[in-house]
Amino acid sequence: MAVSILAPVAYIGTLVIALLVFSRVYRKRKAVAFEKTNTPWFESHPERDVYQTLVAAQNDQIPEEVLKAALLSRAMTDVRRIIRMRDDKQALAVLAQKGSIGDETMTNFAHAEKELEAEILDVVSEANTYREGWGQIIFPTASEMVAHLKHKEIYYGIQAQRQAEVEALEKAGKPIPKPTIEMPPLVTPPGTTIQVQAASEGGQHSITTMSINNAEEESSEAVEGDGLGDSSTASSQPAKQPAKQPAKQNNKKQAAKAKATAAKNKLAATVADEDEEEEEEEEEDGADEA
């Protein structure tokens, strides 16, 4: 029985089509698995994109302060990522010892660490372009700002948390406890001293000390607010203050003199008493000898 020449051609064609279909399906599944196992540890870095966009604009209308602020915001995001990766590293080490995660996750984490190191070096080099030595203190400054913002979020979230708990108690029909301590406003106390580190042009660090006194600011604001009244009252207040100060000083001096005089009189009285006692003892000794 003669075999047609179309049979081997059909067989080869069917085999090729099957191989192509298998290759396409296999590559799709491999790509999906690769995306699942090799997803970036952090999805995006919008602060870095904003800074690079501002730098690439090369516009004279963009002041240098805006670029510095964008770079500092980028450093703050890097500080948050450093804290997160430090916590994740401990958890991943425990999971890896138990065998709960594979080597692919650890490899992905190692790549994320290298990317973050490169990001830190890039931020430091960019900071040094604005001023020599700023790269050494930009991350400590960003860390302080991140801690301050976290403190503010927690502080201002107390009221919302209490409101949610009050609503839960109302729904449950339970008594609502009254707050025993009122939350003071988050303000800087008077007399606070703030030290700001900055790098000079020669690369040396200089420390600027600023003293904040809210009481003086409030008093100045009160004086400005009372400026709608008579100008005579406003002008009379500064005149009274110098008059009160000498009076207070004189009173203090008189009190100090009175204390000194009383101490001298007391000392003289004690000395006289001691002399009298010595004379009496001498008389008694003489009488005994006689």
From TrEMBL:
Span list, region Disordered: 215-290
Alphabetical list of InterPro entries matching this protein: Sec66
Record-annotated membrane-spanning stretches: 6-26
What is one Gene Ontology biological process annotated in the Swiss-Prot or TrEMBL record? Answer: post-translational protein targeting to membrane, translocation
CC terms in the record's Gene Ontology section = Sec62/Sec63 complex
Task: Report the leader peptide range.
Answer: none
Read off the Pfam families from this record.
Answer: Sec66
| Bias type Acidic residues, positions | 215-224, 272-290
Swiss-Prot/TrEMBL keywords: Membrane, Transmembrane, Transmembrane helix
Q: Bias regions of kind Low complexity — which residues? A: 237-249, 257-269
PANTHER family registered for this protein in UniProt: TRANSLOCATION PROTEIN SEC66
Indicate what this protein is called per its UniProt record. Translocation protein sec66
